[in-house]
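Task: complex structure prediction.
Instruction: return C-alpha cells for all chains below.
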Amino acid sequence: METILLKNIQNPNSADIAEYKKAGGYASIRKALGMEPQQVIDEVKKAGLRGRGGAGFPVAMKWTFASADPKFPKYLLCNADEGEPGTFKDRPILEKNPHLLIEGMIISGHALKAEYGYIYLRGEYPAAKHILNAAIQQAYDTNLLGENILGKGITFHLAVHQGAGAYICGEETALIESLEGDKGQPRIKPPFPVNVGVFSKPTVVNNVETLSNLPYIIEVGGETYAKIGTPDCPGPKIFCISGHVEKPGIYELPMGTKLRDIIYTHCGGIKGGKKLKAVIPGGISTPVLPPDKIDCPMDFVNMPKHGSMLGSGAVIVMDESVCLVKVCHRALKFFEHESCGKCTPCREGTGWLRAILGRIENGEGMEGDIDTMLAVSANMLGKTFCPLGDGAASVVQNFIKHFRPEFEEHIRAKKCVVNG
Amino acid sequence: MFSSAAKQEIEDIRTKYPNARAALLPTIYVAQREFGWLSSEAYDAVADLLNVPKATVRGVATFYAMYKQKPMGRHLIQLCTNVSCMILGAERLVDFLKITYGVEPGGVSPDGRFSLVIMECIGACGTAPAMLVNDDFHDNLTEKKLQEILEKYT
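Output:
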C-alpha cells in the first residue's frame, strides 16, 4: 500500500518544509481554504474518519458540536501525549513529518473556525519539541500560520505545549487542565470540551494521527478516502509492533488488517521461531488475547466483537518465555503510578491489585487472591472518573480470564513457574 | 531569582497563552533548568514571576514525574522498564547500572555523575529496551551497548 501518513519519512530531510512541499505537501491547504468550513466538515464526514487516539469517536461529529457552539475564540488541541505503553505511532509523524500534522491542524482550524491551536507534546519527546518548533516557525515564515493565511483572511496560531510525564494527560479533560497550568486531573463531563474546554471556550482535542489524515482527505475527497480500510472504519492506520516478532516497528496498513497478518506476514512471525503465548493488541490498557484469538480485524468496530479493543494500535507480542503474572504486575505498577488520585476506586484499586500481583509473582500468593483481584476489579469497572481505572481493572480481568491456570500455578508453587 | 535571559525566555513563553497561569508548566521547566532542580528558591522565583501562590506551584510541580524534587547527577538516565522494554531485558540493565555505576532507581551515583529515573514508556517500544540520557534517545540496548554509550557522558 502506498503510504499516506508515513509518506516520505525515509527522506532524511523530510521534516523540512521545502522537502514536504516537493512531495506535494501544503497543496491541500490551498484547496481547503477555498472551501467553506462546513464543506470541510462534510468531506470529513464522508470520509468516515474516526479519532485515532483510542476511542474511535467520529471526528465530524465532534467538530459539528464545537462548530455549533456560538462562543469564540475556539481552540484546536492536538493530543501528542502519546503515553499508552507499547505506542510509538505518533512519534514518526512528529519527528519526520511535522508539516503533515501542521497542515492537518490548519485545515481543522479552518473547519472549526478556531484561531488558536496547541500541540500538547509529552515531555518524553524532547527531539520532537525542537523539530515541531522549527517546523512551526517555517510555517509562520511562509504565511501558512498567523494572520491572513495565504491572503484568505483566515487566522490560525499554533504553539507547542510540553507535558511533564503524566500518562493521564492523554485523557482530553486532563490534557486541558494541564494546558491551563494545573495538575492533570480529569474533569467531570458534561460539560464536554466541545462546549466548555480550554480557557472555558469550545475546544476540539484530536490525536496526531487523526489530524494527519486531513490533508489526504481534502486532496482526494471523503468518498475516495473511505474506500481504504473497512466500511465502518475507513482509512489507513499506523500499527506499532513491539516485543517478540522478527521485525518490530511501525507499519501503515489499512484499518481492519487482521492481527494475525500483522504479526506473521508484516512482522515476520515470532522471533527465533518460538511459540506465541499472548498478544496485547492496542496498548497496555486493552484486553490481552491468547494465540487462538488473533484472527480479528484490527479496527474500532470489530475488535470489541473479538474480546478486545483497537486502542492505539500498539501490538505487544509475547512469546512462551514470558511470565504473564509478571507482565500483569508491571502493567498494574504503571497504572498505580499514573493514577491521578482524584477518585477512590482507581487510586485504591490500582494499588491493591499491584500489591496482590506482586506477592503472587514473588511466591507469597495466597489462596483466594485471584478471586480477591476479580472482586477489586469489579468494584473499579464503570465506577471511576475516567477510563484509566477501567483500563486497569480490565487488564487484570482479561489476564485472569485467558491465563488463570498460570496465576494458580504461581500461587500453588509459591514461585514464578515460568522463569523460576 | 531568575537570570535576565531566563526572565526574557519566560516572557516569550507567556505570549503564547491567554493568561499567566497557563505558562506555569513551561516556566517550571525553565526554573528546573536554571536552578538544577526545584529547590525552595526555584519555587519562589516561579511564584513571584507568574504571581501564582507558591503552594499552587508546588502542588502542580509534584504532580508531574519529570519535575525534579531533589538535586540530580550531572547526567540524567531515564530508562524505560514498561512491558515492551521489560520483556526484552530492561531489568537486567537496571541491575547493570547498579553494579557498574552504583546508581539505583530514583538515586544518584556516588560520584554525582548519573541520576537514574525509571520511565513509564518513552515511545521506543519497537527498538526496546530504550532510554533517554539527558535529551538523547538510545535504543536496542544491551549491557555492553549501555556501557559504551554512558562512557561518553563524563
